[in-house]
Design brief:
The complex is a heterodimer.
Chain A (H helix, E strand, L loop, with lengths): L3 H30 L6 H22 L5 H23 L29 H18 L5
Helix pairs in contact in A: 1-2, 1-4, 2-3, 3-4
Chain B lengths: L2 H30 L25 E2 L6 E7 L4 H16 L4 E7 L6 H13 L3 H10 L1 H4 L14 H11 L4 H10 L3 H13 L7 E4 L2 E2 L5 H12 L2
Parallel strand pairs in B: 2-3
Antiparallel strand pairs in B: 1-3, 2-4, 4-5
Helix pairs in contact in B: 2-4, 3-4, 3-7
The chains are: A mainly alpha, B alpha+beta.
Chain lengths: ~140, ~230
């Protein structure tokens, strides 16, 4: 049946997929249920996060060892936006040069669980974990 | 169907069910306690006056068991669409619901329109003017997605026309608009709204409990649950 090599392929892929799925549903929960308006940068990160659910799922179903080559460009882009957002959010880049002019400001704090868990931080963590999962598994065959 | 598809589908089902249960739990927790009031509600930080000010426009019996506070914007399209629903709810609950209007002026002409309704109220026609402004909103209001080059309506002339339609004393109306007589009241409402966490219009509070999801059935259910107390 399955050897240990295919199992190694599967676990990080499933982990990356579950993180993307939870991030997708979670972000929709914030905006649709809790009615927190997403800022412009949040939308850009959503554009990267949502398709990852489908892309990684397709890679899992096809058992495609090359999956990371089409998932990583999307997840790395998302991480780049998340890094920029966090730098703004925590004041490493001055707010005045943000592209956020419409709706909610990208630096307004809407959630702060346990005193440090914010929405941009959750997004960055999710992208980093997805990237690590995709980078560190060894596709066999 | 491959094994992978089954695993993925099972996880999706679990996550979606979790989200739906979480949504219902979250909405219940938002609606369970009044946002203002004494220590008994755990929200003693926000005084009750923030929700209902003595000079706020009110419709219905003062001793009605349910007070429905609506934060609205005369220029907001959803408020206009929902206007008849609110009136119908007041009628259906047969005098048991009192409506209090608070302003959340978030559009370019909201302040002017709110001033017009307040000025009409001086002459006893507040609710008629509110209804008229909602009905004719497409004539005077900002249209979402309209090109910047689109012709701007002549609001001054339109508002005068509406005032004449309701047989109001035009001079008094114009004086109120000129003096910006209700500026302080409107700014206070906006501040109160922000204090209460109002982020969109319309936002409803039923005896101080914030309606978590904007829909007619949800609003009716929340009112009914207050009446059962």
């Amino acid at each position: 049946m399955e050897n240990s090599e295919t199992k190694q392929f599967k676990i990080p892929a499933y982990a990356a997929w579950i993180i993307a799925l939870v991030a997708t549903v979670g972000s929709l929960f914030f905006s649709e249920v809790m009615q927190l308006p997403p800022c412009v940068l949040c939308w850009y990160q959503r554009i990267a996060m949502y398709p990852l659910v489908l892309i990684i799922a397709a890679g899992i179903v096809l058992r495609d060892p090359k999956m990371k080559y089409y998932a990583l460009p999307v997840s790395l882009t998302g991480m780049a936006i998340a890094i920029y957002h966090n730098l703004l959010y925590y004041g490493f880049i001055p707010d005045s040069i943000t592209p956020c002019t419409q709706g909610i400001s990208c630096t307004s704090v809407q959630i702060e669980w346990l005193g440090f868990i914010t929405i941009p931080l959750m997004s960055l963590t999710a992208f980093i974990c997805i990237n690590l999962c995709l980078l560190f598994y060894k596709p066999t065959k | 169907m491959s094994k992978e598809i089954k695993i993925l589908a099972a996880i999706v089902v679990v996550v979606v069910i979790g989200a739906v249960v979480g949504a219902s739990y979250y909405r219940n927790s938002v609606q369970s306690v009044p946002v203002t009031g004494g220590a008994s509600t755990g929200n003693s930080a926000i005084p009750a006056e923030t929700l209902v000010r003595p000079d706020s426009p009110t419709l219905g019996a003062a001793d009605a068991p349910v007070t429905l506070v609506e934060f609205l914007d005369p220029e907001c399209e959803s408020c206009a669409a929902f206007g008849p629903v609110v009136k119908k709810i007041l009628k259906d609950f047969d005098g048991k619901v009192r409506l209090v209007v608070r302003y959340m002026p978030l559009h370019p002409n909201s302040l002017r329109a709110a001033t017009l309704t307040e000025a009409a109220g001086e002459q006893g026609k507040y609710w008629q003017m509110q209804e008229l402004l909602f009905q004719r909103q497409s004539q005077w209001g900002e249209r979402h997605g309209a090109p910047a080059t689109a012709a701007k309506p002549d609001i001054e002339a339109l508002f005068e026309k509406y005032a004449m339609e309701l047989n109001l004393d035009l001079e008094k109306i114009n004086a109120a608009i000129r003096e910006n007589r209700y500026q302080q009241k409107l700014e206070r409402d906006l501040r109160d709204g922000r204090t209460l966490g109002v982020r969109q219009t319309p936002t409803f509070f039923v005896n101080g409990r914030r309606l978590a999801r904007f829909s007619e059935p949800d609003l009716r259910a929340l009112i009914a649950s207050e009446l059962q107390k």
